[in-house]
Structures are given as C-alpha cells and as structure tokens.
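Memo to structure team: turn this sequence into structure tokens by end of day. - J.P.
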Amino acid sequence: MPTMTTAEGVVESLIRHGLTAVYALPGVHNDPLFDAFYRRRDKLRVIHPRHEQAAGYMALGAALATGKPQAFSTVPGPGFLNAGAALLTAYGMNAPVLGLIGQIPQAQIDRGHGQLHEIHDQLGVARHFAKYVNRVRAPHEGPGLVAEALHRATSGRQRPAVLECAWDMWGRSGPVTFPAMPLPHEPPPVDEDAVEQAARILGTGERPLIVLGGGAQDAAAEVAALAEMLEAPTLAGYRRGHGILPGSHRLSINLPIAHRLWKDADVVLAIGTRLYMQHEQWGVDDGLKIVRVDIDPEEPERFRKPAAALIGDAAPCLRALLERLPAHNRRRASRAEELKGHRGWLAGRLARLEPQLGFVKAIRAALPADGILVDEVTQVGFACRLAFSAEKPRTFLSPGYQDNLGWGYGAALGAKSARPDTPVVAIAGDGGLMYQVGEMATAMQHKLAVVVVVFDNGAFGNVRLLQRENFGNRLIASDLRNPDFVKLAESFGMAAFRAGTAAELEGTLTQALKLDAPALVHVPCGDMPSPWDMIRMPRVRG
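Reply from structure team:
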C-alpha cells in the first residue's frame, strides 16, 4: 500500500477513472488538493475559470457533450453555493458531474465558530441537488469514495455527486489502496414479459408516435430502426432529445407538429423522457396507450400509469423490442405525404418568427453537422428549439427544465475542452452573456475555441416581451445598458465580428469557426416576435 496524502489519493483515483480535466478555482481550503493536481498535471489538466459558477457549468457542458463523468472543485461556503446553480442544472439534466468541495477544519465542522467560508450542514444543502454526497475523513477513504461517487453518478438515472474534504485533511498522509476502477455497473435485466406486452401494443397501433428525451442519447441507432419499423413520426424533444434521430430524417418532427399529431395518435413510445409537456399541457385520455422506456423505475408512473413500461437503459430495452416487434407489427402506409403537409404548415407558422428563423438557418448553415450548438435562454434560443436541425446526438446542448439564464457560455467552454476537435458555437442574449462575460478571459487563457454569438437588443428580451403582452406594457427591470461587445472581446485579445443580418451572420460565423480560436460575433437586433404560441400549446386530449 503506497503512502499518499488524501488529496493525492483522490487525484489518482480521478485519473484511474479516465478523467483528463478538472474545472477548478483554488483557495486556501484546497491548497493541498491543487498541489496534488500540480504533481499529476501530465495526466489531469486543471482549467481554472473566473467564477465558481463557470467551473460547475464547464463540468456540466463537458459531461453533456461526452456522456462521461466530469469533475469540478471549489472552496466551501460561498464557492460551493456559487456552483450550486450548475449542480442544480446537472441534477435536472441527469448529468454525471462530481463536485470536490473543500471544508473548514474537520473538528470544527458545524460548530458555528465563524470559520472562514463556514456553512452549516454543507452536505445537507448538497443533498437537494446531488444523488450522492459524502465526506472524505481520512487518506484511506479517498479512492473508495471517489469510486463510489462516480459509480453512483453514472449508474441508473445519472445525476451529480458531491464529496467534501476538510481543510486539514487534504494534506494528511496515510496508506492508501485503490479499488477496482471503475466499479462494475449492473444494469437492470430486460423484462421479457414487459417487452412482449410493449411489442403487442406498439405493433397493433394504427398511428404510433415516438417521443425522445435525454435518456435516449445513447440509443440513436435503435431509435432510428424502431421509428422506421413502426413508420412513426418521432419528436426529438423540446430541449434534450435533439439529434438522436437526425433532424433531416424523413420521420423526424419537432414540437408543433408533434402537438398536431398528438390528438390522433393511438399509441406513444416515450423513451428517456419525463413526458411532462404532453401530460400536463397536451392531455392524455383512455384512447391513448403509452409505452414508457426509462432507467428510473419511479418515472413511468409519475403522471399516469402507462400501458407498458420497460425499466432499463434505452439501448438494450429497444434492442429487445426490435426483436419482438416484427411478430406483432401491422403494415402501415407511408407517412411521407402527411408529414410533408405538416411541415408546410409549420413553415408558414415559423415564417413570422423573423429575424430569429433567419439567424437559426444561418447558424445551421455555418456549423458542420457534427458541430455542437449550446442553446441559451434567449429569443433565438427558443427558435432553435423549434427549428434547428440537429443531426447527431450530443450536438444540441440545452439547459433542461431549469432553463437558467447565463448557463451557456461556461457549458460551451466545457464542451470544447472535452471535445477539442469539434466546432462549438454558443448563442446568448446580451443579458445572458453578461452573467459569464469574464469567462472570455478563460477561453483565451486555456485556448478554448468557442465562438459565441451574442444577440443584443439591450434588454432581457423575453421578460420585456411578457411585460408588454401580459402587463399592459408596464416595463420594469428589463432594459439593459451594454458594453461595445466587439471592443470588449478585442480587449481580451479575442477575434470579434459584427453581423447585422442573417446572411452576414452566416458569413462571419463561418469565418470565425475557421480561426479555430476563441471568437465573438455581435448581432445588434431589436424586439423579436413571440414564439410562445408554438411552445405553450393548448390541451387537445383528456
């Protein structure tokens, strides 16, 4: 058994689990941890942002872009709370993010002495948005707890984990052993009876519909095969499912078309999705049979008991379904002409979303098919969710149901660090970008070639829109005063461009991506038309 400090054992465990980067801000509580990072800098890159919030979002973006666990580290108390929004977002998005959080001296935890960065029951706070929390209390515990935290974060329904370690424990030495890494996963066995039941229900349906969520990201081939076997229009979700079935696929549909088809569907296959919008807004009745596929056994019956439920990872469940379905599957006519009509209808609806639609088309034209687009809470972001055609899984990153302003730039930097050979574009409003504007320095320092497109209308645009439409144009706290974004980017040494039209955006974005360096494109714009009638759509069943 080698003798190591607690910090050295934790860092070695991260490396043995295949992590190659950690997003971290230093501080006195974690000094021995950063010294251990330094000693293994050949294997584990430390990327330090300018704010703890960005550290968490960078780890989240890296996890979403790769499907693999990622780690960040902060000091306790205010540092931990600054990263809390990123942990909450990771929890909502089922992302395997590990937070390594410092603590005050071990003997003084929760004593109320007023120690630097002291917070009462830090792990208790973390339990609200982490799947697993624990404290490393001695050197020999470090490797095992890292292994357990990463195992929990990546098993079943993936979610964040948090480990804390006291100020005086990081540097303490002792004998250390390393468990087998990673700990083996034991996926739930496929329930063959449930598969048979689901196959009968789906196979006999006349007008099937498939709805995808983030839980289907690693089952793209199986999803495509099922959609084609069932001749089923397939909704790639509003946020998380984009790209699982390519947007260019003949059966791929988006949200408004799915809403149109919902009222006449007789069977729905929901894969890795909460199906919240459909249950709570569109409506469900006894004439609609729903088959759920989900890793979380609590999810299928959260709103209403489904006709059948397969509990397990999407890919093996769908492979089993593909084997059984042919014995029950009826012959269906092609849906091509029907979907052509729906797409024509939607084109007419989207045409009034200008200039957003033009900007969305420009981004799609400039970004390669395997490029990553990081969505933000902005009017163009909402339009992307309706009209952007993602062609591959994990290429459209959107913040899930937290839908939190300002997450995007940090997440994009994390995605780029984890997939350096993949083009990454982040979109942001002027309000959202200013949440993490200091991270332009991070992009330059660590050579993270993200191109951020900032749509600048001098306001929290969505807030102002709703104040105008719903509150008699009584505008308050929605107007913004902004810097010259081009000059601001250039002050960091970053390439910067300005585009006034969709055509100019396509050209400047194409040029910026060719630089393979951090860049900003500033798009001055005015008020934009509301997309909400294509997002908050009325009940059509039940």
